[in-house]
Amino acid sequence: MLILSDGRTHRVAAEATTAGDAVRLQLSDAPVNATMLPESVLYHVLRTGETTILDDASAEPMSATDPYVGEHRARSILCLPLRNGAKPMGALYLENNRIARGFSPGGIAVLKIMASQAAVSLENARLYRDVAESEAKMRRLVDANIIGFNVWDADGNILEANDVFLRMVGYGRDDLVAGRVRCVDLTAPEKHDDAIRARIELAETGRTKPFEMEYVRKDGGRVPVIVGFAASDANGRKGVAFVLDLTEQKQAEKKVRESEERYREVQAELAHANRVATMGQLAASIAHELSQPIASTVISAEAALRWLDREPADIDEASRALDSIVGGANRAADVLGRIRQLVRKAPRRKEPVDINEVIREIADLVQGEARKSGAQLETQLAEGLPFVEGDRVELQQVLLNLIINALEALNGIDGVRQVCISTTETEGACVLVTVRDSGPGFGPNGTEHAFTAFYTTKATGLGMGLSICRSIIDAHGGRLWATESSPRGAVIQFTVPQRPAVSSREAQSTDATDAD
Ligand code: ADP
């Protein structure tokens, strides 16, 4: 009986029985059990790796009580281990149930040689089977044409390739046979450095991590791929490559990029429209604000004329009046400049911004509107704040929206009408801006809905202000949120990350240098 063992299970691979001159050979693959042979003998041989000879099994202590020996009247037993070096592979079990001492020393010596030869042959057969199996698996993978596959040599020739690979690069099988498919022609010129890096990695480790490449097709077109190499010999002069076509993924990525771009454009347009609309709302009060410096300019101009008309002309007084004209005109030009900035459509910028300065400018702009609503606009700005990084106009827009919302909330309430804007530096290198009003607050669940686009409780509201503010602050890497104030009122707060590693003084001097 030939018993093969994989260390855990033991199976009978073949059984030969002789009776007279006839030999009956039976191949099988059945697990060993106690009805086939004396298991006590087999396990002893497998465990010790020693040949066991029992001259009369029924009389030997090792086997006398074995149920098989009793039942089959086994007399002489010879069990030889099959080993390939130190590796146990199974055993050869021989039994003579006619006579005791049935195995001669000469016969045993021959059998031992046979057993060691058999072990080597069995191991070889197993190795061949393993190789054949893994080759078959590989072949199935290649033929399945799910991913591109090729066999290359160190001279850059593609020796073998599956259909997927050939389709990817637009070559035919005739090109492959004629040796016209070559790595050097396939690699896009700008990717040659990557190809060289892959060669070095291949030489060092025998394989490469998958990396992105671009192949040049036979028709000159390009195909983006992800490719991985593995050497099939020790010095990396031959090997295989697995290639995955990335065209669809790249197109999908491009679409996502385009739609993100479009989304950003729409967002910017919306933000701009919101700014223009808000400025429209402020037009009356700004016009009123502007009329004051203009009126005082006219008065100063008339005064200057009078001082000059005198005999002798009073130059000192006239120049004081002219100074006041310059001051008034500058103030009006300033306000107009800010309005123009807010209404202008310009791409988003990333610049150092002094948030306190932004608040002062906006507070100036809405002062007239606050007065109109009978509200007091107050600022509590922390000194020495770091600069933040962002778009000045967008941050002005956020503040403008928040202040206008606060003023609108104050309309029609009894008691103190107050809006307070404060700034402070927070942990995590951010500047925190708080806009607090003494209005009715958001009401139950109001803080949840307020940021939803088109949510408004106002007759002429659009419901876009807060959601635009939030998207602007998000784009600045900050956070904007609302809470209720005690005993009443709304609090809107937002953070903007400070400009990395530049203090406000340094930033100022950098800006001055930039301006120079
Ligand atoms: P709109 O001002 O056009 O209504 P917003 O998005 O700016 O759009 O505001 C949405 C809603 O949030 C407002 O209609 C209002 O109900 C609420 N809200 C915003 N700011 C305040 C505030 N300071 N106090 C109370 N409610 C507010």
Automatic annotation (TrEMBL):
Ranges in coiled-coil conformation: 249-276
Domain of life of the organism encoding this protein: Bacteria
Catalytically driven reaction(s): ATP + protein L-histidine = ADP + protein N-phospho-L-histidine
InterPro entries: GAF, GAF-like_dom_sf, HATPase_C_sf, HATPase_dom, His_kinase_dom, HisK_dim/P_dom, HisK_dim/P_sf, PAS
Span of domain PAS: 134-207
Histidine kinase domain ranges (all copies): 285-500
MF GO annotations: ATP binding; phosphorelay sensor kinase activity
Assigned keywords, A-Z: ATP-binding, Coiled coil, Kinase, Nucleotide-binding, Phosphoprotein, Transferase, Two-component regulatory system
Transmembrane segment boundaries: none
Sequence ranges assigned to domain PAC in this UniProt record: 209-258
Pfam families: GAF_2 (PF13185), HATPase_c (PF02518), HisKA (PF00512), PAS_9 (PF13426)
Enzyme Commission number: 2.7.13.3
SMART domains: GAF, HATPase_c, HisKA, PAS
EC primary class: transferase
PROSITE patterns in the record: HIS_KIN (PS50109), PAC (PS50113), PAS (PS50112)
Protein name as annotated: histidine kinase
